[in-house]
Design goal:
Its EC number is 4.1.99.3. Pfam families: DNA_photolyase, FAD_binding_7. It comes from Flavobacterium frigoris (strain PS1). Belongs to the DNA photolyase family. The chain has 18 helices and five strands. The chain has 431 residues and is of the alpha/beta class. Among the domains are: 127 residues, Rossmann fold; 149 residues, DNA Cyclobutane Dipyrimidine Photolyase, subunit A, domain 3. The chain has a five-stranded parallel sheet with strand order 3-2-1-4-5. Helix 5 links the parallel strand 4 and strand 5. Helix 13 packs across helix 15. The radius of gyration is 23 Å and the shape is globular. The chain starts with a strand and ends with a helix.
């Protein structure tokens, strides 16, 4: 029996039908296109059954499947070890081509190398495309071809290159939807994948406040953030559409999107930063790593209202305001002298918008161990941060219900902690 000749488009961090580069290219194929998503056991096995990000991925896939149903197609959803899934698909279909968009994290690069080798052995052609960034890998480099490790010159070159390409091309996939494979694949329940609905939800993104971003971004009580970050992480929005829009609307917001790509190219060029200090000179710092102190930080019971409100917001919602992220990260690394990897891992578990490059990059920035990081002697004073950015206590009262009943004593005195941190860094940094 002859097997059906098909092309696959493999969804990963690009959960949308609109302006999707790899999908656009796949739909030019001479073969019917099967859209595929694989729930990877190697990732899922380490997650709790009510993981909020899995729920968001599932809901996003369900929306894609509903749209495909309107044109007589559907999404093929598989679960298992990725290589085994592809082996079964090759067995079932005559797979002529596979299209996908690139991912730049270490595990993804390793996974994709294995899959492409498997496809090649089976005489299947694979194509990968840039989709989740404007500029990838080695497109923005110094004159010697090496990666930038300082943000400002990277940003300047990024902007020069972007301006030379205005507007960045967007890809209209809708005109080729007739190329989808006509199918009625059964869309699995979340329970069939081994998970359950999370009570923590990803909020819809909203750009209406971005025009005033520079004026409101540091005030956590003002609920006027874009909520874009989880959507960027999982690709439910197009970075090209977003950057083209931001370029016209707000330079400060655009700079934040460029920071995202800066940290992605740092991770790609220096994969050691996932677990190791970017600056080896900081390897000698003697961290306290007190487990009881860490538990108090995690639970939001440090006695510093700004820190505690941030951690409680994170634990209850999966979100934390960006200004507060800096405060809580600095507090863990500097006040408590707990190494950044502990905080990075906790954020990775809790954040709806967890993205390895940004999480590692920002934690190393806060700890002083990263590229273009805050200097080691910069120690945020949580009380001053509160007075500057939440002077009326609206943010704090939202997340600390008992605040007005008499709040607890700080677990560590700021002046002492600051002096201890600076002394410890001085002693540990290799000159």
């Amino acid at each position: 029996m002859n097997k059906q000749e098909v092309t696959f488009f493999w969804f990963r961090r690009d959960l949308r039908l609109d302006d999707n580069v790899g999908l656009f290219q796949a739909l030019q194929s001479n073969y019917p296109v099967i859209p595929l998503f694989v729930f990877d056991d190697l990732i899922l096995d380490s997650l709790p059954k009510n993981d909020s990000r899995v729920s968001f991925i599932y809901d996003s896939l369900s929306e894609i499947n509903d749209k495909l149903h309107e044109i007589g197609s559907s999404l093929l959803v598989k679960k298992g070890k990725t290589a085994a899934v592809w082996e079964s698909l090759i067995e079932e279909y005559d797979v002529k081509e596979v299209f996908f968009n690139k991912d730049y994290e270490p595990y993804a690069i390793e996974r994709d190398t294995v899959i492409c080798e498997l496809l090649e052995v089976n005489k299947t052609v694979s194509y990968s495309f840039k989709d989740q960034v404007i500029f990838e890998e080695k497109e923005i480099t110094k004159a010697d071809g090496l990666a930038y490790t300082i943000y400002t010159p990277y940003k300047n070159k990024w902007l020069d290159k972007y301006r030379s390409k205005l507007p960045v091309e967007e890809f209209d996939t809708k005109a080729r939807f007739f190329s989808f494979y006509k199918s009625d694949f059964i869309f699995p329940s979340l329970e069939a994948i081994g998970f359950e609905k999370s009570i923590i939800k990803v909020k819809p993104h909203n750009l209406k406040f971005v025009v005033d971003y520079q004026d409101i971004r540091d005030f956590p009580a003002i609920d006027k953030t874009s909520y874009l970050s989880p959507h960027l992480r999982f690709g439910t929005v197009s970075i090209r559409k977003l950057v083209n829009w931001a370029f016209r609307k707000n330079d400060v917001f655009l700079s934040e999107l460029i920071w995202r790509e800066f940290f992605m190219q740092i991770l790609f060029s220096f994969p050691k930063v996932v677990t190791n200090n970017f600056k080896p000179a900081y390897d000698g710092i003697q961290w306290r790593n007190d487990e009881d102190d860490f538990k108090r930080w995690c639970s939001g019971t440090t006695g510093y209202p700004m820190v505690d409100a941030g951690m409680r917001q994170l634990n209850e919602t999966g979100y934390m305001h960006n200004r507060v992220r800096m405060v809580v990260a600095s507090f863990l690394c500097k006040h408590l002298l707990i190494q950044w990897q502990w905080g990075e891992a906790y954020f990775a578990e809790k954040l709806l918008d967890y993205e390895m490059s940004a999480n590692v990059g920002n934690w190393q920035w806060a700890a002083g161990t990263g590229c273009d990081a805050a200097p080691y002697f910069r120690v945020f004073n949580p009380e001053i941060q509160q007075k500057k950015f939440d002077k009326d206590g609206a943010y704090i009262r939202k997340w600390i219900k008992e605040f007005d009943l008499g709040y607890g004593k700080p677990m560590v005195e700021h002046a002492m902690a600051r002096d201890r941190a600076i002394a410890t860094y001085k002693a540990g940094i290799v000159k």
